[in-house]
Design goal:
Order of helices and strands: HHHHHHHHHHHEHEHEHEHEHHHHEHEH
Oligomer: single chain
Distance between the termini: 47 Å
Helix content: 40-55%
Structural class: mainly alpha
Number of helices: 21
Bound molecules: iron/sulfur cluster
Number of strands: 7
Shape: globular
Length: about 500
């Protein structure tokens, strides 16, 4: 365990007393030139970077009216101050959303407002200096872009957008984050975040077919690069690799099998994640997403289904249409894209799946709403479907289900603490401390209702919980994939063989 103190979980949530600079030391590893250049960024801090950063900020506010409004409209009401899990977990006042925004706002004011140019000291305007840049690098990598603060802001100011803009500026002048940029580079070169080449992927899928055959006696397929399949499954590469993710992939395959639909994975687009969103890079976002369009066209599929990944679902649901659409080559009778939970839920509603819920009787399950699904997308054809559908899928497969406190789920869900490109070991202290509010809510249902497992539909949440649960004295295997629960309970009878 690392060299910091894990926050205590109290009986009731407590707003911490401010500790100035408590997390000033927290900064992720800086990207090297080999991580920067393939993404179209300078390898290191460029000459005259101060002016270039200011110019880039100007470009961003002239292109995005939303960003300009967010920077112009804060009235310092304070409603957001206690809403960020990183402030609640670290006590550092710069992790209050309004303070985080002010890191960028102060520079915006200095160069792009009349008052900031004339009387900067009166309006909190600051010059673009190395000290400011260092502060940006530290604190804009203490924001998981979860958007919780925007729910409580009377003006709807979205700190995630501000954080993305700041990271875009930093990348533009040559100061990128190693973790995110290295991953985006791997995806662009090999097709997935893990850097898993096609033969290794094919091998993994073959192994899974054998495992499922042994477990169930049924020939459930895990097809790869099958032309003419009906469905292309786009899923996070974590699903090919480790528990609990891989249990989810087995669950998807069993559902497709039971539904009798043909499906395939693509070795060219073997990744749902798109970390380009975290660094605010539109060009990389598009480049990564285009692989999926290209794979769908080459394989000649009729539908695209997206596996359990939070930010990937945001990119797919909210951006794909304008980013890589139109999808006029897909079957218009189905949603484009469709979430795997939506797919499974439709079958449940039609009575097309059979479950033996007693297979999950060793569990009392709760559900963690992932930020990008909860606050940045929807699911299905009903308002709030992103909250209803995953829960209905869990309840169809488990006899014992309990929700966490209402203010910590749904639209007000607390981030797992590892989203937004922060799921890296060099930010472990931040991740553990930022997970505190979620762990607090989890502890309540563990103590009061005997909850044994927490399910999620996001690869980052699952990986983050696997790491941080033990810090809070919970077992690491408490975290489950929703389709891992489906996999356990689904009955693949003779009709499905
Ligand atoms: S977006 Fe989330 S992580 Fe960022 S400041 Fe708001 S609440 Fe905190
Ligand atoms: S809630 Fe909104 S308006 Fe109020 S201080 Fe926070 S960002 Fe500013």
């Amino acid at each position: 365990m690392a060299n910091f103190e894990t926050p205590a979980l109290r009986e009731y949530p407590v707003i911490p007393i401010v500790q100035e600079g408590a997390m000033a030391h927290s900064s992720p590893f800086v990207a090297k030139p080999e991580h920067q250049q393939p993404l179209g960024f300078p390898g290191q801090l460029v000459e005259n970077w101060e002016q270039k950063a200011v110019d880039r900020l100007g470009e961003l506010v002239s292109k995005s009216r939303a960003l300009r409004v967010f920077l112009d409209s804060c009235v310092k009401c304070g409603a957001c101050t206690d809403k960020c899990h990183y402030y609640l977990g670290t006590s550092d006042p710069k992790n209050m959303p309004v303070a985080r925004q002010d890191l960028l706002r102060s520079v915006y004011r200095r160069y792009y407002t009349f008052a900031g140019r004339v009387v900067p000291w009166l309006v909190g305007a600051r010059d673009m200096t190395k000290e400011v840049l260092d502060e940006w690098y530290s604190y804009f990598h203490q924001c998981s872009q979860c958007r919780r603060c925007s729910v409580y802001c009377p003006y709807g100011i979205d700190t995630a957008e501000i954080s993305m803009a700041a990271r875009d500026i930093m990348n533009t002048v040559g100061l990128g984050q190693k973790y995110s940029n290295e991953i985006i580079g791997k995806l662009q070169k090999i097709g997935n975040n893990l850097g898993l080449p096609e033969p290794a992927l094919a091998d993994t899928l073959e192994g899974l077919e054998e495992d499922v055959k042994l477990e169930t006696g049924v020939d459930v397929k895990f097809p790869l690069d099958v032309k003419g399949a009906e469905i292309l499954l786009i899923t996070p590469s974590a699903d090919f690799f480790a528990e609990p993710h891989i249990d989810g992939l087995v669950g998807y395959a069993k559902v497709f099998h039971a539904a009798g639909v043909s499906w395939t994975l693509s070795s060219y687009a073997s990744e749902a994640a798109n970390f380009s969103m975290f660094i605010g890079s539109h060009s990389n976002l598009r480049k990564v997403a285009l692989r999926i369009r290209k794979a769908a066209l080459e394989l000649g599929v009729k539908r695209i289904v997206v596996g359990e990944c939070g930010h990937a679902w945001r990119v797919a649901y909210s951006f794909w249409n304008t980013l890589i659409g139109p999808f006029d080559f897909l079957d218009p009778n189905y949603p484009v894209p469709q979430h795997i939970c939506e797919f499974t839920y439709d079958l449940i509603r039609k009575g097309a799946l059979k479950f033996d819920k007693s297979q999950n009787d060793d569990k009392v399950v709760t559900f963690h709403d992932s930020c990008n699904v909860a606050r940045a997308s929807r699911m299905g054809d009903m308002p709030g479907g992103q909250f209803v559908i995953p829960r209905e899928v869990i309840k169809a497969t488990c006899n014992h289900y309990v929700d966490m406190a209402p203010e910590t789920i749904g639209e007000g869900t607390f981030c797992c603490g590892g989203g937004g490109g922060l799921l890296t070991d060099d930010l472990m202290e931040l991740r553990v401390k930022g997970a505190m509010p979620r762990m607090q809510a989890l502890k309540e249902v563990v103590d009061e209702h005997g909850v044994t497992h927490i399910a999620a539909i996001c690869a980052i949440c699952k990986a983050q919980f696997t790491k941080v649960l033990p810090y809070y004295k919970f077992p690491m295997d408490m975290i489950q994939s929703v389709h891992g629960l489906v996999s356990k309970a689904i009955v693949l009878g003779p009709a499905n063989e």
